[in-house]
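ingest -> fold -> write
write: protein_1
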Amino acid sequence: MKALVLLILLISFSLQLNSQKLKINQAEQYFKEYRFAESTPIYKELIFKDKISVGKYENVYRHSIVSADKSHDYIFLYDVLNQFSQSDKFNFDDAFYFFQISLHLGKYEKAKEILNSSIVLNSDNPKKKLLTNYQGGNFIDELRKDTLGYEINKSIFNSGIGDFNPIYHPNGIVFTSARDIVLLKSKYDNSSYLNLYLFSKDSSVHELQIPGTKKHQGTACYDSINKIWYYSKNFRAKKSDTLISTGIFIYDEKTQIETPFTFNIEEFFTAQPSLSKDLQTLWFSSDRVGGYGKSDIWYSVKIGQNWSTPVNAGNIINTSEEEMFPYCKQNLLYFSSNGHPGLGGLDIFSAELGNQNSLKNLGANLNSNSDDFSLILDETDKVGLYSSNRENFIDNIYSFKIKTLVFLMKGKFQSPNVSFADIQKVPLYIKESGVIFDTLYPDSILSVEFYGEKEKQYEFAVNDEKYLPITEYYSTVGKTFSDTTYKVFELITKVLDADFFVYDSLTNLPLANSNLNLRNSTNGISETYASDQNGHIHSKLIRNNDFEYISKFDGYEYKSSFFSSRTKDNEVKVLIPMSKIPVVVEPPLEVGAFIPMQSLSFEFNKWNLDKESKLELNRIADLLLSTPNMKVEFNSHTDARGSAAYNLNLSKKRTEMAVTYLKSRGVKSENIEGKWFGETELLNDCKDGVVCTPEEHKENRRTEIKIVSID
């Protein structure tokens, strides 16, 4: 029998290996074809469900990291890097990337841990200088304090799918979007292809009618004087399984002619054009040869009707990482970077042209741990627009205003079963140091707003007799930037209605005057009810408790079961079908007889009682309590699988578990004695060395209650 079990395990292991191999091949094929939205879920299953090892599948781990990044699954990306960091395959470049992702997710303590790890401190990698600028994490803390203070609002024309790169236009605001009105999708992350849209002054949004492409089109700037567009769009892919590069294209509205930027290179990324105010300098981002890293800021100067050979903006601005989305205003170049020290992802920086010591991170809360980019300013230089994916890694366009710090808590009341009118009557108490100093009530849309002061800790409390208590906390201690915190106050009633329906299981007719004992398993309180002429019983139950009921009716077998009030609904309904007692001849209760019972259900190698076993023991407990002069033995037996000593101990545990449960139901210790026999009293020939079916083994795995005396 043990050989058979070993064979089954070997077959199962072989099937598992084959399944893993198929999944790895499929994921790697998707990866090769840049179908990252499809490869990422498979990598996730391989690493965290199948638990493939880093040592054997290093390339799979590395490909999963790239795939997660391209499909924007940053939580999975972090988890893989975290696991990867515990292997001997983890190197400085991995640590550098792990640091960036930790920042991007706002996991600042993990980022500091990486900065101070031996793999960073002992490295001679050139990129170590970028990490050294963080001063072991102190720069992050200082940056979060060093802020001008910004008022930030999400623009009303966001689609919730991906909107970014706003520019001012004579007719409104032009921006790039992946909204779903475009039918074509990217195979990399299943997003819609990018296009340019205009948010008009009449608040309407429509797609701009300029030469399109079957691929992405966006990140534009506009010469409103000469009515000329400069925008990025993809080149046609040479093969279906290759990555698509991007170039800058120029479209003249007057002639309706589109021409490519002279210095596009199809093998490289050239995008995000931005014109200087005098229209004589074209700024853009590119990863072309001659740069410092992944993508740099470049510029080209207008000479007559042509553009000069692009010039790199230099190593004061550019790093070995990504610098993107340039915008020049009043001799200040604004751009985004994840190479200069920041809060995470792309941060927005400014640098005065010609001044090597003017580089500045614009600080929190304009910047966040996520990507913040494509900033523009109006004529006052105090108000502008920019993009960020700080909400669920989805790009949105925000307006901002430089101003004093504001701490705002926006609360929303909700309840699935309570009316608006009743919710508006519920007070929200605001406490400081445990003392109530203000009370708010939900408005017509069930919202509340509270403006906090600096360096304060607040407690918001709902203490209404009808609902479960709610406590939320809000702190401004240590905050040096404006923020808005959103909280939800969900009202749930303290009690709910319970309706029981008792009926004949064969005829479905109601059973009037049936007895129902309802016991609260959480607090031990019991109540007894009788059903009405419709077999109905109504009760009020405390929410979030567990219950057991026993239903009795003359001539019917009693019905016992469990249920819970752990629900947000306002009522629970319990159907109780009752079965008539079959005519059977019960054996006499005499010394030496066994009390009839269904065998308790123990899984192989287990001794826990399931719900069905507890219900059977409830019936035995009722019998023993109704016959207080009877003493019994509770005997437990096992099958022969396993050693004799182990089986004896297993049967002991099962006996003790059952006896303890019977005592918890009121059976006195002197009325019940537990015994255990292990595999010593088999009912068939299924002993060690004999091959038997699971059913034959189950026959030996039994429990019995023997009457030893009746006084």
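write: protein_2
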Amino acid sequence: MIAEAGHYALVLALGLAVVQALVPMLGARWRDPAMMAVAGPAALAQFGFVALAFAALATSYVMSDFSVANVVENSHSAMPLIYRFTSVWGNHEGSMLLWIFILALFGALVAAFGRNLPATLKANVLAVQAWIATAFLLFILLASNPFLRLADAPFEGRDLNPILQDLGLAIHPPILYVGYVGCSISFSFAIAALLEGRIDAAWARWVRPWTLAAWIFLTLGISMGSYWAYYELGWGGWWFWDPVENASLMPWLSATALLHSAVVMEKRDALKVWTILLAILSFSLSLLGTFLVRSGVLTSVHTFASDPTRGVFILAILVFFVGGSLALFAWRAPVLKQGGLFAPISREGALVYNNLFLTSACATVFVGTLYPLALEALTGDKISVGAPFFNATFGPLLVPLLLAMPFGPLLAWKRGDLLAVAQRLSGAAAIAVAALVAAFAYQGAGPVLAPIGLGLGLFVILGALTDLAERTQVLRVRFKVALARALGLPRATWGTALAHLGVGVALLGIVGETQWSAERIASIKPGDVVSLRGYDLTFEGSVPRAGPNYRELVARFTVRRGAETIAVLEPAKRTFAARNMTTTEAALLTRGVGQIYLSLGDVNSDGSVAVRLYDKPLVLLIWIGTLVMAAGGALSLSDRRLRVGAPKPARDRAAMQPAE
């Protein structure tokens, strides 16, 4: 009865979503407070039923209920409990239920914490959220039901895809989905503003926290997925320009541009039309990612679906919401009043400059990802667009963006002094240039781009620190005064500096990993030594081991540097009998912010084992940088000024005004 209860809960959630989509929107149009008030309780109740359905599916997995077809296809009773639970979203049907669960959660959060929103805006926002929920609830009930029963239940399941049986994949999808689906709130705010025909600085204040929250989770989700691919797939790479990776990068770039645009709108009441368009595009790109991953048009470890019916259904959803929102934008955008003016050399101008390069980079990824699919659909020809294209187009767009990044926070609003800002950044620039020259001298005939990237990363980091130093006057006043200034700075200021600093740190890691890493491939027998950059790894032999639902061959390597024994590494090959699949378990040795990476290949006929050995200097800075970026976003989100609704001082002033 658990599966049937979950299915019935989805049906009830669909009914509530339809009510939430129609009644509050009509109430907003007719100015009926009672009808608009339906939105909040409906959103909360809808979330309750979706949560019940999700709990029912999770219970079926944890209990290994093999009368449910979805559990049979993606679980095994011998799997560890955590992977039986995470199998819920390790498949197409369950992942779509997770998508809807997070969508309903965001709607419930707006209903619960959007008390300061104007009644009409709140009603329209929740109604738009409900339209999205209705579409996906229909999809899951009609084309992707996770609760289908089998007439003859098998004794055992087919097991989860072995490469998904990893802690990183247990956490990565929910975090990434929160980022994906979180963009729906910005979208709903944008559509609500277009329906009402009014958008102002208060709207930007309300939408920024939701966008920032989605951006934080997108950052963490992409970062975690990158690290999982790095250590789990055994290739030693952290980014492959896989179309599914690109599908998550595009909304991240668009949401980053939206955050900066919303700042200009909030401060200067400008860029209204551009901000609305970015809000629409961010969620549209999230829907596009859902289509690419769940439609079966791509073959990837990230994808689950191969049923054309599902692909057509998701494509219809994509066309309806993207096409409909862009049509509404084209119709209503001209009536939106333009805001204040500003000089090109100003903080607003720097943010616009930032947006131009971010959106151009996003467009580059969009074209490179979709062009092969469009060409195949139209002509039948198959081509591959890989790293060379993206490196040649995406990278050059980021260089001017990174060069300008330290200037933006130091420029004044409305009209800035570029020369004065350049003078303040002269120290950061001098250190960056010195590091660049030193790197050239040290590496000799090494890669040219490495020292340039090193200098650019240092300039971004030192630029963020210069901004904080200028605001606190730490080098000009007494320490106590500087400390008081630092404590008085808004959290959003600290968060911005931290996020920019994280970008610089990640750039240093990217430079170190891509330009200075070394690789050695060898075929060795017990007693042989493989060496790389002063590290000697002695192959001591291999032993078989049994896991809960797999068997593995574990190789043992003693790592020495000179006469010193540093560590023992144990890479492995795991074989999952139920799926008849083998996975590679790499062994990692961390040395500072770099790593020694060792993975096993195939066992040869003569008993030797192929190994792949990497030395990856600075590689951990990639993920440390993204964590710093997310921490900066979280710090900004904690700023009272970025909470949903009008700022507290404004409410206090309004309360003190005499009644008319």
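write: annotation protein_2
The first strand starts at residue 518 and ends at 524.
Residues 425-517 form one domain.
pipeline exit 0
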